Amino acid sequence: MPNDLTTAPATTPLSDVPVGSTVVVAALSRSSAALRRLGEMGLTPGCELRVVRVAPLGDPVEVSLRGYRLSLRKQDAADVETVAPGDWPPA
């Protein structure tokens, strides 16, 4: 008997997305003042962004979104869950 349950797309932390990749923000995995501030700057679920570069030691991560560039600490980038553009919006 086939399984009719749909599965949610797998998410990837922004800190693990390769340079040059375009992804969509799926969720912010925890609540903090820093992440709330990022939301106010436009980093919200459904926002498409591109990873521009990552510093040699992995911190910070620079992304391009909504017409500007934003640098995030690796710790904050790890709390941003992303999906491939084709997997958004979730079913």
Number of domains in the coordinates? 1
Rough outline: globular
CATH topology call: SH3 type barrels
Distance between the termini: 22 Å
What can you tell me about this protein's structure?
With 91 residues, this protein is an alpha+beta fold. The chain has a single domain, classed as Roll (SH3 type barrels). Helices cover 13% and strands 33% of the residues. It is built from two helices and six strands; from the N terminus they run E-E-H-E-E-E-H-E. The chain has a six-stranded antiparallel beta sheet with strand order 1-6-2-3-4-5. Strand 4 (61-65) and strand 5 form a beta hairpin. The longest helix is centred in the middle third of the chain and has 8 residues, at 33-40. The chain is globular and about 35 Å long. The model has no long low-confidence stretch (mean pLDDT 86).
Summarize the structure in short.
This protein is α+β, with helices and mostly antiparallel strands. The protein has one domain (12-87): Ferrous iron transport protein A (FeoA) (SH3 type barrels, Roll).
List keywords for this structure.
SH3 type barrels, six-stranded antiparallel β-sheet, single chain, alpha+beta, 13% helix, 91 residues
Strand and helix map with partners:
Elements: E1 12-13, E2 22-28, H1 33-40, E3 48-54, E4 61-65, E5 68-72, H2 74-77, E6 80-83
Antiparallel strand pairs: 1-6, 2-3, 2-6, 3-4, 4-5
